[in-house]
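Translate sequence into structure tokens.
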Amino acid sequence: MRIDPGDDEQPEIGLIALIDCIFFLLMFFMVATSFKQKEQQHKDKPLPIQLPRSDATPVRALAAPDPLVIRVDRAGSVSIGGEGLGIEALHERLRDEAGRQPGRPVRIEGDGRVPYQSIVRVLDLCQFEGLTNIAMLTRRE
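Result follows.
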């Protein structure tokens, strides 16, 4: 028995699906290109920002005492104002400073090659005496 398929129909490409795919790709590239252009525009140009100005000087800045500078050299020796101090003398000096000005800032200037234990010893003494406003500075001698 012979089956007659009828008309010889040629296979068709789904034109609707092809148009949808091309439209999607076109939109994708248009959006991606516009984002890249905006990114490059803002990268080269700084943002125009105008910060408010104040003519008043903060009271705290006027009343801030000079920091107590403690230097720790490469060997771990401690000095205040060029005067070399041992651990017990440093402890007494910090006790006196905390008694006179409890909120006085302390700046520890340590050599970059000093053992960390020497800095921790000074930090512990400052904390023990209640001097908690501490800044640290590393330098090379």
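Note: The mean pLDDT is 79.
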